[in-house]
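Hey L., structure's done. Input below.
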Amino acid sequence: MKVGILSVQGDFAAHAEMLHSLGAETIEVRTSADLSSCDALILPGGESTTQLQFLKEEGLFESIRRFAAEEHPVFGTCAGAILLATEVKNPNQDSLRLLDMTVLRNAYGRQLASDVVYGTNKFPAHENSLEMVFIRAPIIERVGSDVEVLAQYDGKPTLVRKGNILASTFHPELTSDSAVHQYFLDLVNVRDKEASSVSAR
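Output:
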């Protein structure tokens, strides 16, 4: 299993460390050629406008959209979640539009500019207490009817999924808890098994 990590800025090294601890191989993605050898992709935190500009300049914007359309799992954290949203506000900006949700940039403001909280979630082993590290975090204001909310804090979704697309407003890579990354890898495993089954027919 090879998981690509967009490696422009932000905490891509922390994502790689977490994935390595779970036995996954990682690839630093900066070009469409890098992406072509990946089974899945992580869009890490950082500054979404800077990352968006890079994706467009390097031709990765459309490459990632095709990658997702081919059912490859894609996981966006914080700025990565902003890039995945169908609608971005505060201020408005373009996005990959891969996950039906409206996101408000920097919406938590100073009180959660950098903070650790515990929120409700659907991970059985966590007894409704999942550690969430917020760093100038966005808020998911709205999700589509077919988007599953996997975790929330203060009444707002913080981890959501639709099919092969996963997004979190917090930074699971900055904790010692591997539950979210393992969940993502499980999506990759399911996709690989389905692809193998089809090719064997």
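Helices lie at 12-21, 32-36, 48-57, 60-69, 79-84, 179-200. The CA atoms of residues 100 and 125 lie 28 Å apart.

-- N.
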